[in-house]
Amino acid sequence: MRVNLGALSLFVALVGLSSFIFLVVAIATDFWYIIDASKLEASRNGTDALSSHSGLWRTCRVRSECYPLINPFWHETANITDSHRQLLYMHGTFVILMPLSLILMIFGGMTGFISILARAYLLLLMTGLLFLFGGISVYIAYSAAAFQEAVCLLRSKDLLVEIDIRFGWSLALVWISFVAEVVTGAVFLLAARVVGVKRHREQAL
Q1: In terms of Cα–Cα distance, which of 1, 30, 49, 9 is closest to 191?
Q2: CB atoms within 10 A of CB 83
Q3: Long-range contacts of 152-158 (CB under 8 A, 24+ apart)
Q4: Least confident among 18-22, 61-65, 130-134, 196-200
Q5: Helices vs strands, H then E, count in the chain
Q6: Is the pTM of this model over 0.70?
């Protein structure tokens, strides 16, 4: 089956842009983790809202204002436990890596645009590998690890019976962005193959 390079270019542009937009929205929103404490609120018969949702930068309680998370880079002298400190280290890691992923995607988009215009086989191949192994899966792994650490902290207080912690739609957008980035990398590799086959045929003639 003959693959049209122009159609591939349009497809990879749409998918790559979608991946970038999803990741930007995920980083900017505060629904990475959702803590449902409705059972605890009912058992205490209180009016204080204990349920909340958190992002990379802040935590927001229901019917209350949002407040920033503890700075993960300036907590050495803070009076916190070792488990909490480990959680902050992990949080600080993907606070750095998530924006770095955006920079890599911008760089990959620029090199991809140039490589398609120039029909450059090696540049297409490198761009495909950059998107395919861009590393968003690493950020997901850190996020999941931080979530498990938070669960461990709550388990030590026997609160999991009354508190439900789950991933929010912001993290789901990161997963969608990761899938779109993998597809973008695969299409760039396919484009590299198309250019390579076409160049081989031209040399054979």
Answers
A1: 9
A2: 13
A3: 152/83, 153/83, 153/84, 153/87, 156/83
A4: 61-65
A5: 6, 5
A6: yes
Q: What share of the chain is helix, strand, coil (3-state, %, to 5)?
A: 65, 10, 25
Three-state secondary-structure class, residue 53: strand
Alpha-carbon distance values, 152 to 81, 86, 147, 165, 194 (Å): 13, 12, 9, 11, 50
Confidence class for position 21, pLDDT limits 50, 70, 90? very high
Helix (H, G, I), strand (E, B) or coil at 36: strand
At CA 168, angle to CA 155 and CA 83, rounded to 5?
Answer: 30
From residue 199, give the alpha-carbon distance in Å to each of 121, 187, 193, 196. Answer: 9, 18, 10, 5
- Segments of 29-115 assigned E as strands: 33-36, 52-54, 58-61, 66-68
End-to-end alpha carbon distance in the chain: 21
